[in-house]
Amino acid sequence: MDKDARLLERFSGGDQEAFNELVSRWRTPIVCYLHRFLGDRERAEELAQEVFLKLYFKSRKFRPRPGATFKSYMFKVATNTALNERRRLARRIMTVPMDRPDSDDCRPMDPPDQKSLSPEDRQSGLEALEALKRGLALLPQRQAAALLMHAFHDMSHKDIGQSLGISEKAVKSLIKRSRDSLKHTLGSILDS
Questions:
Q1: Would you call 184 exposed, middle or buried from its count of C-beta atoms within 10 A (0-12, 13-18, 19+)?
Q2: How many whole angstroms separate alpha carbon 78 and alpha carbon 29?
Q3: Model confidence over 146-164: pLDDT tens digits?
Q4: CB-based burial of residue 36 (10 Å sphere; 0-12 exposed, 13-18 middle, 19+ buried)?
């Protein structure tokens, strides 16, 4: 059992400080994930609170599967919460933030070193980054979730699978399809 699962177990036994430590350890990764998934930092903050409320009220029911990690459990709850939100906003076009305009907590997707590039190359790099953001926003939800967990949260295929309730093989397929879709979409966006 990992440290976070032990903290949750302690909280289930009445140790409020253990829950506070879990929130402290997991708030930033969950907010960053939701921010990238939804494209709205403020809404990500609100949904992170929902994730922790679910954890608070359902902690006694937490029984990790053999080999499962607390990380995969947290991302499963966060993903389900984000998917519900995206369904609610299904008709709205969203963008996926890759930089950090409002926070130093999330690892950004930085453009290449700007100093070594010509002005034309700098502009091309920024346009490509914007195209990538639009392309990610167009991916099917499960593909976007798998790719974000893999690329920005260094999650293994096993942990992603546990978070999404699918096999490791299905995760590999989702990531490959998301990359293929991005290549196709980026080609279309950049050619237009």
A1: exposed
A2: 10
A3: 988 888 888 899 999 888 8
A4: buried
Number of Cβ within a 10 Å radius of residue 112: 12
The domains of the chain are located at 3-98+117-191
Q: How far apart are CA 74 and CA 51, in angstroms?
A: 8
Architecture of the CATH domain 3-98+117-191: Orthogonal Bundle (1.10)
Flag whether pLDDT at 134 surpasses 70.
Answer: yes
Q: Is the pLDDT of residue 173 over 90?
A: yes
Nearest alpha-carbon partner for 1 in 56, 70, 77: 70
Encoding tokens for residue 100?
């950090």
Backbone angles phi, psi at 52, to 5 degrees: -70, -30
Q: CA 151, 155, 157, 159 torsion: positive or negative? A: negative
What's the rounded Cα separation, in Å, for the pair 161 and 153? 14
pLDDT at 34 over 90: yes
Q: Cα(132)–Cα(62) distance, rounded to whole angstroms?
A: 37
| pLDDT at 105 (0 to 100) | 62
Nearest to 159 by CA among 30, 54, 72, 48: 72
